What we know:
Blueprint: E1 3-8, E2 16-21, H1 30-41, E3 55-59, E4 73-78, E5 85-90, H2 94-101, E6 103-109, E7 118-123, E8 126-131, H3 140-151, E9 156-159, H4 162-165, E10 173-175, E11 184-186, H5 191-197, E12 200-205, H6 218-234, H7 236-245, H8 250-257, H9 273-276, H10 278-287, E13 291-294, E14 305-309, E15 315-318, H11 322-328, H12 337-350, H13 354-366, H14 375-387, H15 390-396, H16 399-405, E16 413-414, E17 417-418, H17 428-436, H18 449-452, H19 468-485, H20 492-497, H21 499-513, H22 519-539, H23 552-555, H24 569-573
Parallel strand pairs: 1-6, 7-12
Antiparallel strand pairs: 1-2, 3-4, 3-6, 4-5, 7-8, 9-10, 9-12, 10-11, 13-14, 14-15, 16-17
Helix pairs in contact: 1-19, 1-22, 6-21, 11-13, 12-14, 13-16, 14-15, 17-19, 19-22
Iron/sulfur cluster binds next to loops.
Amino acid sequence: MDKIVRIDMGAKGGPKISTEPAGEYAGLGGRATTSLIVSKEVHPLCHPLGAENKLVIAPGMLSGSTGAMSGRLSVGCKSPLTGTIKESNAGGQAAQVLARIGYAAIILEGKPEGDDLYKIIVNKDGVKVEVDNSLKLLDNYPLIEKLRGQYGDKVAYMSIGSAGERLLLGASIACTDPELRPTRHCGRGGVGAVMGSKKVKAIILDDAGCKHRAPKDPDKYRDANRKFVEGLRKHPVTGEGLPAYGTNVLTNVLNEAGGYPTYNFKTGRFAGSAKLSGEAQAELEIKRGGTATHGCHRGCVIQCSGVYNDKDGHYLTKQPEYETVWAHGGNCGIDDLDTVARLDFMDDNFGLDTIEMGATIGVAMDAGLIEFGDKEGAIRLMEEVGKGTPLGRVLGCGAGITGKVFGVEKVPVVKNQAIPAYDPRPIQGIGVTYATTTQGADHTAGYAIATNILKVGGDVDPLKTEGQVELSRNLQIATAAIDSTGMCLFIAFAIMDQPETFQALLDMLNAFYGTELTGDGVVELGKTVLSAERDFNKRAGFSKEDDRLPRFFYTDPIEPHNQVFSMSDEELDSVFNW
Ligand code: SF4
């Protein structure tokens, strides 16, 4: 990972490729690389779909090594959904393969004229950009099928579906999993529309002839990795709950806590939650010949994913995540896993963020387009998006735009990005993160659920305001650092609770790079990333008044706790005081 490749898609005479040393970004990875490059190189006032925006693709610091869990890929740009800086990451094989080929980043810049559609092929011999108009408007599953016919099964694919080509603001970038299914998505913020604006349909990553990245001290690295894996296996969340039931183990937990937003954030509990739970989902998957335990990339030892088959035992989609089951399920008053799974497949196929689309359908239900609980109606709305009809284009641009078009007053977005599956009124800590993160509403940016609800890394009462600012601040800093390592964020449960597992992670980084990074150094890395992101947002015109939740969270109490979001503006404005 000692070089960066730039592809100027708008160069005269066709795309121009240039390679440069990693330079100031050497030793960084993931979100640190994408956010520092975007902050430095992208004009903050540019149009996100214009030639001045850049799409930066970066594997993590440990990606491509033999280290467990190190396969997250970060994508960064100015977001067309939020107008802020954006880092969106995904699993799948892409990060491992790109890192082994040796690239710290791919930077797509400029914007081609004309209607040609391109694919990019990256292998040990270099980078090629080719016109391939036969791929136009193919959705992700048929697209990958077609590409596999040409490039085979020993590569990783990144791609956009029709939503990205149509520049919809909910569009994602798909990465293929070990079985070459386009199921792992950089979902949030419309990054797929930025790739679509560059007219790049697919990136084929081929590491044939490349080796694992070698640590500076292989023995120490192997030893630290072993301790790290032991720590993950012994923690109840990463060693038991997630492998058995996936992230959807949270449905019962959040419903019990009264923090499960239902009917577009009107109540905190859903009568049909048991039918949607991770326990019910795992049982159904196993009964139908799928699996409830699966890794999205090789080297994952937690294996929170799975395979969801239809009633006839045929593959339908990967195991829908908790946030997807909530978005398309309880949030829309739908208590049927098969409907959720169909909608999840459609999201992956068209190339859309499941959270944004579930929240959008909830808003559309509030607008009266269809009734809450209307399963076939929800599928019909998604079909509109896939066809690119005028209604579909409105919906595909997310909850905020849909709310405006149909005059809905209560729309759950922050900086125009949909609020995910945890209500901020009975869980104040996650509300602090939604309001203040650099990314627009994003649970992963500072997952206060861990400490507010799951009691991991301490215990902060979710209903009270005390301790929430410190909790969100510390989590946002730690997350920015973890997102830079290429590690799956789910390692956080084990490293927050078990000091020896956190030390093992530090030992891995130090053995790999020959450094002496300490816990303080990790904190500094996280702060550096957040500072660059906040600086970009400030220059893009964002101020503290944007770091707020929609008013209805402050005025409308939610059952069963009858609570509003009570954090003061002063408290929210102090999150980044360090
Ligand atoms: S724990 Fe889940 S999301 Fe994380 S790498 Fe494994 S399968 Fe992927």
